[in-house]
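hey can u check if this looks right to u? its 275 residues, i copy pasted from the old doc so theres a chance i mangled smth
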Amino acid sequence: MSATRVAIVSGSNRGLGLAIVRGLCKDFKGDVYLCSRSEASGKEALKSLETEGLCPKYHQLDICDETSVLAFKEFLVKNYGGLDVLVNNAGFAYKSASTEPFGKQARDTVDINYYGTLKISNILLPIMKKGGRVVNVSSFVSLMSIKKCSEDLQSIFRSQTITEEELSSKMEEFITHAGAGDHVKHGWPDTSYGVSKIGVSVMTWIQARQMRMRGVDGVLINACCPGWVRTDMAGQKATKSPDEGAITPLYCALLPEGAKEPHGKFLSDKTIKEW
């Protein structure tokens, strides 16, 4: 087993994820794994970084496939004794022009962005090493979307005692109402991506609270907004380059040894934002 530190970035074969891997290769003292569902596209991205003189490693990872995540966990435990930095970047969004029924958009988007992130977190958080860093890439859309929720939903999502089970139940409630076409009537915003990222953000507070209760030494878990980044998902009109979008995720991933804060916070432009 190697004493080398290790960082992984999900969904990092392009765009923001690739930029985060680039930054970690430059500033993280250890091995950095570029991860993707498709091995072919992942290895192609790996070669692009190698032409820049960087030395990332590769491992296949599909956050929605439990077998894939468990295989990666076994690999990390066997070769590194655990995990030092986890960046949950993988995500999905339908294009605004999509003609898919809103109920299907809600199901697919929440399944990947919320349940996929929840799956990889529940499997990999138990192997985080002392002083580890966890970064859940959320979005400014989650801040906009929670303000469009009913007061009752806002109160639930801002609760200091909400549980994972309660949060998942609310995600399912949204999907049900989205399928029926009455989600707005029941206090939900008209955005499946926004609701899925509310889930990612609130999940972060729950994870941070659980980590403190378990007394895990020095692990910091935060959600962050990279900004509006020019990617396949956001389009080319966005205001930030992928490398500019990577600044805050990298800040969270590289918080100095011994840091106590931020923990369980939402950051944008390296600054804590009120949820």
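The chain has a mean pLDDT of 93.
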